[in-house]
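S1.2 Input.
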Amino acid sequence: MPPQDLANDQRAALDARHLIHPWTDFREQPVLILEEGNGVHVRDSNGHEMIDGIGGMWCVNIGYGRKEMAQAIAAQAEKLCYYSPFGFLSNTPSIELAAKLAAYAPGDLNRVFFTTGGSTAVDTAMRLASFYFNVTGRPDKRHVITRDLAYHGSTHLSASLSGKPSDRGLISLVEDTIHHIPAPNPYRRPDGMTEAEFLDEKVRELEDKILELGPENVACFIAEPILASGGVIVPPAGYHRRTLEICRRHDVLYISDEVVTGFGRNGAIFASEPVYGIVPDMITCAKGLTSGYVPLGAVMVSDRIYQEIAETTEGRIFANGFTYSSHPVACAAGLKNLEIMEREDICGHVREVGPYFLQALRPLLDSPIVGDIRGSHLMACVEYVSDKQAKTVPPQAWRIAQRIIGETMPRGLMVRPMGSMVIMSPPLIITKAEIDELAGILREATEVVTAQLRREGLLAA
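S1.3 Output.
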């Protein structure tokens, strides 16, 4: 019997028997089987429809069910489904997409290395940095600075760069050359400290770490413009520009990880320059590059770095690549994705509705268990607390985020639970009416959970 003809309980049983899910919790738990998506909505195998408040995983930027995307993918698969990524071969979609990305990238970031996703893009950026310093006679520059609560991927190297405790788990990671500095979270700054003072402290921590390790030993600093899955942490204004200045001062490469913030999530194709005022040495991207329709990632590299490598590498090979690098079908999807974004001015739409989205969430601050609402454009986080004044993280017994999603999903909203936080990144085509619906469901769920906690004696009346 074909799997699609099986009853829900049969499919769930097959799932439990055979499928290992990413970030698996090995305790038995029910599985939600999604069957269909359209616009900002997904529908499960029981026919229940929900607003996808997560946008897949920060990635379904143009929304579900775009027939022209499916047609572009199918047409390229019929024409040329694959090509070998040997250095002397190329294919038309990858050439056209590389040129398109270079036109959007800031400054002189005109060189593109295509990967299979965000993790392999970050991994490639690290290898490029290592290769660059080795071939230019500075092999000791191999240490990397990253941040607590960062997320940079799930390859061994990119997972080592990540700073979310839940993602570091029981896996041995690289520790001798990777160094974490504190996350620039204004909500968690000490009482009495101004945001300007907090900014000075965070910038100083980066420079202190570089000086501690020795600038001659530090290769790069990698930073998400907004720490996305770490809690949508928006650094204080000026942070990106000042940390870039520190890197320039000490000959440290600055890598902007735009896997989440790129392709419209912050109202621009690349947010580094138009939103945050910086031109980094490299940009990593993925997710919204194809709006999740097929896997694809990329590293944008400055001409300066590329030219130095090219001038000094006669007879040397940058031994990095993937079976699916520059995959023609994926690149065709990327081209069609950008065509749709341009034609519909999706970045302009995000700049318009982004402030409305954050404003619609603000009434949640009236709740006794909501400590902070933060975000930028169409990425947001609601952080729940057990004491608003002390900003106390709720005890594990509250299972606060799981309770919230347990109330939102039956009401037609899927959000991302993360410890004491609920994270949202809806498709970029979301309307103001759909934002109102999303915010209303989340407010209702928060009220219901607050009442539950009080009945259980976990929260004072």
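S1.4 Remarks. Residues 432-455 form the longest helix (24 residues).
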